[in-house]
Amino acid sequence: MSIAFARGRNPSRAPTPPHRAPWNRIIARRSLLVSNAPSEPLVPGMRFGPACRAGLAQRGSPRSPEYVDHSRTRWSFSSAQSPRLRRSAHRRDALGVGQELVQAQVSVDRLTDQDASLVTMSDALVLDLQRLAMNSGTGLPELLLRTKAVAVKLGLPKPREWIEHEINGYPPKVELPSYRIIPSELRVQNPFHGWTAVLWEDSMEPLQKHFARSEIRHPIAEVEVQSQAKGPIHTSLLPAEIEVLLATGNHHIGRLASARVFSRASFVGILEGVRAKVLDWALALEKEGILGKSMTFDAMEKQNASGVEFSTNEVVARVLFLSANPDPKSPLAVEKEQNRIVKVRNGAKYQEKIRIEGLPDVDITELAKSLRLHNPMVVHFAGHGRRDGSLLMRDENGKNHAMQPKGLAKLLSIQRDTIRLVILNACYSDELAKHIISNIDCVIGMTDAVSDEVAILFAQTFYSTLFDGGSILESFETSSAVVQARYPDETDTPNLQVKKGIDASRIRVIG
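RESULT FIELD:
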């Protein structure tokens, strides 16, 4: 091993030759590498964080004679290890060098303890993801790339889409997660007092609300840079916003330079929101026994992963209630059915996380738009059905038309990444369910004609269990039992179909 010696404290004294330096043997036994050039890291793929790079910078340039690389070693040095060190001027110089090396090594040891999860990774992808998410030193871009690898290997498009938006930024029409909607304030630059808050008049309340909260759609790397700013963060207004302010006639707002101002803490909150989302998902995967050992996932893990809920917002379960009652000769109590479901939601355990979007008297074009706009997890249809599986609703011209099963099934399959359950609360709709089930996890249809009373009772009891955190299978069995107890003649009318390879007892829309 070649050793290059650092200079001692006395520049006029020449360093002791290597073969005569007793402290050289101590350093050699500790496997200390001292070199004029940086060595390769001990762990393949290991990268130093910012704190480590700062520590290396303090100890000198890799090309300077004072540079010492301690990345390979942990060691301690004490004068008690060699009494002769205190009896020689040369050895006192050597001791001074050794003490400096020890002090420099303390920061490296401390960093290594803090970042152990970055250096020593297990062979389980999900557990490694948890370690990275809990380590505040992990950069968000790196954490998201690792999360993307897990999502791709599991074949889960929803987490992958979220990761792509976080890395590249959110397009204008994409719904933002709640942690990316942060408080803001409109300020104007007073020539005497600097940036000051705007005193809003009562008539300007809509404008005040507009500037009180802002959507942050920038890539996470840009958010991370802003979170390191010193003091408030100022951003320019949009041209349309400036025109609106000028139109108010308020000379303070219209003529002075204006800016939207954010607190740095709000941007830190975005970073923590992303980190918490990754950690929650990784913990949920582990709970289901999904670990990804040996850097891969087996078939059972991939199947179970489809039942792990991944939501980027507080609203976890979004139900799209579609009703069609185009036949005045046989009206249905579809409005009553929707009201019962809403009432169940209002008394549910997770009511704040459930959103019901109602679309009454739906036509085929509105159906296509609503599926794309709301991205529902549950699609509920209440209306008339025919024996061939078609559903009666209005066409694009407002006329009654029987929508054919194949077309409806294809329309629903476009949103198969988000829809987990379709409920067809209409007569003879089980025939339509057979066409849908090839792309949707679970579909409930009616094998025969169904009365208003049975349809409403089934829906009410089904959602009562589902909204309290019950699985799809548990909710179906509960509602079927209630129907059997109250209307025994229609016990077998509701029918649950499950896609091959899916376990309905493991799928929950909430909880």
